[in-house]
High-affinity zinc uptake system protein ZnuA
Amino acid sequence: MRIAMMKKSIMKNSINTSLKNLITAVATTAVLLICGSLQAAEKLTIGITLQPYYSYVKAVVGDKAEVLPLVDEGFNPHNYQPQPNDLRRLKQMDVIVVNGIGHDDFALKVIKAANRDDLIVIEANKDVPLLPAIGQSVGDGAVNPHTFVGLSTTIQKVYTIATELSKIDPDNARTYRKNARKYATEFRKMKRQAMLTLGDLDTSGMLVATTHNAYGYILQEFGVDVAAVIEPAHGVEPSASQLQETIEKIRASKIDVLFYELNMPSRYVETIEAATGVQLYRFSHMTHGAYEESKVAVEMKSNLDTLVEAMKFAAKHSLADTVVTAPSTTHHASINKQQGS
């Protein structure tokens, strides 16, 4: 009898212990789920206006925040008109990162229309040394808004974004700064590799033209000056007289290279090539296509490869011109020297 009662007591205690363990496990799971939900709810939603800024912000925040484009991919920033969906997306954002000096003016209109006084706006270019805009239809005091095409300007903007986000979200500040340094290092390595590839190449006589005012930031980092800008304004094709004037300038200046935009076909570019013999090279603006974290790094590397190729061509072309125009005695001496080496 006593043994039976002991067994019954043991079973009861065992059941109670199991029940307590089950309740504890359920409670722990519930707490974890609630904490996880709260953490997810507390994540910042960061808006961006252009594809490069998706890459920048995503690289900085990683999984610590949500990155939300204001506009669907495939739009043209130069003629885009705000849509109802833009306002709906804007309402989801805690903060938005803007170029702020042109190229995303449509976003500033949306922000104004939304009456979001609580929305934090990060101006990525606020600490970037800006170049003046170039073009026949450019107003006084206008700046070149294409800072996303440059390496040093990209690095500066990434640090600005990380700094400003750290103020808004101090709990993740360390992660943001660490990620910004890692991302910046990637671009520094790219530039260093391009410089090493160029080595002692003499490009002092290199003269280039561009279809429009976009590539100054990357070109200045390699000591390349723009001698002519063809479009009177971005996306505006030159008139017949402006085109003829450009052709004459390219001929007179002996411009070697014409850079034009990868994603915007320009009918007049082939006309200039045929009339002048100038060598054509394409750059990406990084403001077309999908929003991708890797976009800027991939397309910046492609632009650098293109620039190195163009600089090598210009150096070779300049050397050939020197040989052709030199006096015959010098020419023969040069040939004899090469044969003797």
